[in-house]
Amino acid sequence: MPSNAQIVISQFGGPEQLNILTTDIPQPQSGEVLVKVAYSGVNPIDVKTRAGIGWAAEHNKNNLPWTLGYDISGVVIKQGIGSKKFNLNDTVSGFIGFPLRGGGYSQYVCVPETELALVPDDISLKDAAAIPLAGQTAAQALEKAQIQSGETVLILAGAGGVGHIAVQIAAAAKTKVYATCSDENRSYLESLGATAIDYRKENSLKFLSNVDVLIDLIGGDIAIEAMDCLHPGSRLITVPTITSSMVCSHAAELGIIGMGMLVEPDTTQLEELLSLISAGMLKIEVEQCFAMDKVADAHVKVANGHARGKILLDMQV
């Protein structure tokens, strides 16, 4: 009988705390489907939770061993009672178990069908796993900022998992997009419609002023320094929750409208993002896909913060 390999944390700490645990394949309950997971996305929240930082870690500290992961793509192989949204062998994508249940780092996972979207035939399983959390974070940050055509938008960490999607959405909205990145990502970001700024250069943002919207995907002192580019009344959306209060307080002192955000899973929005990928209007970048037994290396890669696009786990290897 086939078994289910899951990547778990038995205690909080470094990447070495990630281990593979073999269990029985779960059975879907009412309203659920069993998904054979192809790929799972690795996100900064996974790295922080593994280290014992944040609300998911606090909530699950007494539930260890616990399985990380919120992004999946895969195939429906079994349906629970009352499950009607999908057929067997449908390819699905999901932003699952957020923020407290997790479970995406599994070869097989039972998911409420309401958390899943059907993947069009012309989208790869890798792209389908890369889009849920990052895509919805990007879209919701820009919605919260209420960007308008003709405005100037600055995106910090524009080549990352969330950033490269935010750049494309902002450019499609006919804003003037600037995005920070390393020099090696300059031409890549410019191909997506942004003016790239090499953050490694001293005073790299000094030339920029009167920015209307700042999308902060880094947080802390870097976000505070970037506020010099804004004007009173500008809007700032800061995504990293750990420094959100500090960043928003500083923004208020400058007359800037600062807002933190926590992404909310929205299956309708996920379906819209998948449609944009299918139509060729949104391009997803996957820098590297690690075998599941190399998950520690994947976490190191994400923690270093220099990936272009998304990092994935191949859950069947």
TrEMBL record:
It comes from the Bacteria. InterPro entries: ADH-like_N, ER, GroES-like_sf, Lipid_raft_assoc_Zn_ADH, NAD(P)-bd_dom_sf. Residues 13-313 form the Enoyl reductase (ER) domain. One of its GO terms (molecular function) is oxidoreductase activity. CDD domains: MDR_like_2. This is NADP-dependent oxidoreductase. It comes from Vibrio casei.
